[in-house]
């Protein structure tokens, strides 16, 4: 188990390092931050002075090693716009993002998993078809389209809810619904597929043939085995709590991390963008690590595999 954990941690650290390197290189190739921040009318001397002050006049490999060394020491850089610490700017926005994504995650789990289970247990019925039609629609419609439709109906036409901003709990209803419905559709589809696959296994038929009540067959045998792929999707959703709200926050003018990322990319504010990407990568990797550990609890074969390998 220790070897398994160390291997996962090592792979997680390598993944984060690769993400940091990729983001660093792509951002340097996407445009000159000095020219964008200083403006097109800035004199060349001012632009050169800006590059020198922020180390942009040095070779890329020198900038990379300085940046990577700063990360290891806990320094994630400062914003080129106002000189504030990039980590402080990002952490200030995290509560606003979580105020949307956490309720949306509850909607995804509370709506998607029961719908998928019900559809699988009533396969080919009218309810199954309705659930799948709604799930496919929720999965294929982009979040910004769904958000704009909700604004058009509930904010413009009916006037029940505000169209954007963050001035109270009513402002969060539409973006939370926008985030939650798409994820619920994904979970419903995956849960249904996993349940149907498990229900077709021989041990399910054997348990039914032995006279085990169908409710017990479902709860004791089908659900635990179908939970493994479902946990993978939930882990991905948990890992994308911060990154998953980029589009929705922009549509609803919600002052979260996602909207900060859009603004920072447009302004070539390198330190802020890199800080957000590092935060997202770390969250995703940690969520996947937790999912790997949960596999051992859900599937006894995974718990016994390391002991057999070391025997």
UniProtKB/TrEMBL annotation:
Alphabetical keyword list: Cell membrane, Membrane, Transmembrane, Transmembrane helix, Transport
Compartments, as annotated in UniProt: Cell membrane
GO MF, any single term: dipeptide transmembrane transporter activity
Main localization category: membrane
InterPro entries: BPD_transp_1_N, MetI-like, MetI-like_sf
GO cellular component terms, A-Z: plasma membrane
The ABC transmembrane type-1 domain, residue ranges: 94-295
Entry keyword annotation includes Endoplasmic reticulum: no
Alphabetical list of CDD domains matching this protein: TM_PBP2
Pfam families tied to this protein: BPD_transp_1, BPD_transp_1_N
Membrane disposition: Multi-pass membrane protein
Spans through the membrane: 12-31, 98-121, 133-160, 172-190, 230-251, 271-298
Protein family according to the UniProt entry: Belongs to the binding-protein-dependent transport system permease family.
Protein name: ABC transporter permease
């Amino acid at each position: 188990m220790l070897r398994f954990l160390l291997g996962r941690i090592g792979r997680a650290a390598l993944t984060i390092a690769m993400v940091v390197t990729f983001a660093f290189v792509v951002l340097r190739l996407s445009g000159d931050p000095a020219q964008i921040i200083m403006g097109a009318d800035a004199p060349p001397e001012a632009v050169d002075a800006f590059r020198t002050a922020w180390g942009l006049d040095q070779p890329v490999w020198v900038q990379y090693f300085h940046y990577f060394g700063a990360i290891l020491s806990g320094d994630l850089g400062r914003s080129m716009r106002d000189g504030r610490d990039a980590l402080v700017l990002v952490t200030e926005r995290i509560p606003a993002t979580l105020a949307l994504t956490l309720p949306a995650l509850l909607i995804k789990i509370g709506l998607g998993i029961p719908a998928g289970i019900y559809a699988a247990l009533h396969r080919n019925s009218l309810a199954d078809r309705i659930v799948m039609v709604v799930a496919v629609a929720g999965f294929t419609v982009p979040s910004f389209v769904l958000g704009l439709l909700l604004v058009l109906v509930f904010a413009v036409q009916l006037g029940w809810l505000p169209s954007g901003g963050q001035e109270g709990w009513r402002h969060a209803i539409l973006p939370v619904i926008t985030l939650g419905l798409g994820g619920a559709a994904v979970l419903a589809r995956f849960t249904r597929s996993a349940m149907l696959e498990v229900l077709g296994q021989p041990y399910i038929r054997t348990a039914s043939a032995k006279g085990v009540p169908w409710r017990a067959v479902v709860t004791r045998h089908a659900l635990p085995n179908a939970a493994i792929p479902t946990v993978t999707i939930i882990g991905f959703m948990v890992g994308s709590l911060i990154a998953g709200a980029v589009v929705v926050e922009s549509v609803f003018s919600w002052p979260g991390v996602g909207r900060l990322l859009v603004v920072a990319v447009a302004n070539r504010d390198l330190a802020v963008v890199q800080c957000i990407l590092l935060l997202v990568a770390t969250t995703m990797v940690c969520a996947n690590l937790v999912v790997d550990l949960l596999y051992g609890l859900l599937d006894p074969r995974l718990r016994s595999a390391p002991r057999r390998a070391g025997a």
